[in-house]
């Protein structure tokens, strides 16, 4: 099975465990594998929204049809693939989440929904990390340190996984 991986990179200042919640709402643009047309808008979906596939026996997180060739695509968030970006990962690309994309490929990601992270010794949680401008700065009152995430980047890669 071919899996699409959303990888992120950022420079972390006095924080670690950068990740998203299981209710995160993704904003992603896809490209149709049949005719290369990009979706007009960012598609939104989350692990909370389950859509039955035709026949209703299995569920995915997003179904859409290509506006040009009408071919249907579907996307599933892969269970257990969510990871955290750590302080030692700083400025290297690391996988955040994996998607099973059928009929399409993800091409653009907008970090509109909030991320979360913790300070280095896990005593302060930051749950409202706004990376929509690709930088975030705050102050940790417990440790009296400035904290921040800078130069947020993402990319999509694909990996091959053996089917279960
Ligand atoms: Zn198409």
TrEMBL record:
Key word Metal-binding present: yes
Keywords: Metal-binding, Zinc
Family indicated by similarity: Belongs to the UPF0587 family.
Keyword Transcription regulation: no
Entry protein name: DUF866-domain-containing protein
Membrane-spanning residues: none
InterPro entries attached to this UniProt entry: CXXC_Zn-binding_euk
């Amino acid at each position: 099975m071919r899996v699409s991986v959303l990888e992120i990179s950022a420079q972390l200042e006095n924080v670690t465990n950068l990740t998203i919640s299981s209710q995160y709402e993704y904003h992603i643009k896809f490209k149709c594998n049949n005719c290369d047309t990009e979706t007009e808008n960012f598609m939104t979906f989350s692990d909370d929204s389950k859509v039955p596939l035709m026949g209703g026996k299995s569920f995915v997180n997003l179904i859409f049809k290509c506006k040009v060739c009408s071919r249907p695509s579907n996307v599933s968030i892969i269970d257990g693939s969510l990871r955290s970006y750590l302080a030692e990962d700083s400025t290297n690309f690391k996988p955040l989440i994996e998607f099973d994309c059928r009929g399409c490929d993800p091409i653009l990601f907008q970090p509109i929904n909030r991320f979360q992270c913790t300070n280095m010794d896990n005593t302060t949680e930051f749950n409202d990390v706004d990376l929509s401008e690709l930088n975030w700065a705050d102050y940790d009152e417990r440790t009296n340190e400035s904290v921040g995430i800078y130069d947020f980047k993402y990319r999509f890669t694909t990996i091959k996984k053996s089917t279960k």
